[in-house]
Amino acid sequence: MRRVLQAITAAALLACGAVLLGCGAAPPRVADHDTLSSPESSAVIYVVRRAWHVDIGFAAAELQPPLASLRASFPGARYLLFGFGDRHYLVDQDRGPGGMLAALWPGAGVMLVTGLAASAQNAFGAQHVIEIRVSASQAAAAQRFVWQSLAAHADTVTSLRSGPYDGSLYYASTQRYSALHTCNTWAAQALRAARLDVHSAGVVFAGQLWIQARRY
Fold first, then answer.
1. Which candidate, 202, 183, 21, places its Cα nearest to that of 109?
2. Angle subtended at Cα 185 by Cα 203 and Cα 187, rounded to the nearest 5 degrees
């Protein structure tokens, strides 16, 4: 039974890396319309599911300092999506058996930031996007969590290299990646930082987070 659980966990970890690496390779579709915010809401947090991986996103116009500084690296982007992954697998491209097994142990993390010219719904399909309407202070708290996940020097962040598709960049992360802290654990923590009733402990699969996010 223990070996089965380890195999399932390993599959989830590799899926997180593979999805971060390859999902969204096609350019976003041209937006037909924009999703309008409720007049009672101050901001929106976008939860975007890419198969086994979940991104957290914000409208570029709603980014607050210091995270707003990233807009300069994504000219023309109307939305920025943030995802977490295993640096050795994604950036260092250690994808042999040793690299796959290493994903089970704590190691360096990496952030993938994606700029979208179209809405997330038009880029990935409405069924893969949840909009959570929050107050300005909740959005600021989530954005602080994202910023603190980026390895900044002198209040600035520098990309490591281009991402796997147009409009994406990899950044070093302050957080560690492991079997207990995957891409989806990180996304759940981002929503918790916004004071949403979402638990992150034990969240490994995208579905575990998706069920919670759908309540909003």
1. 183
2. 125
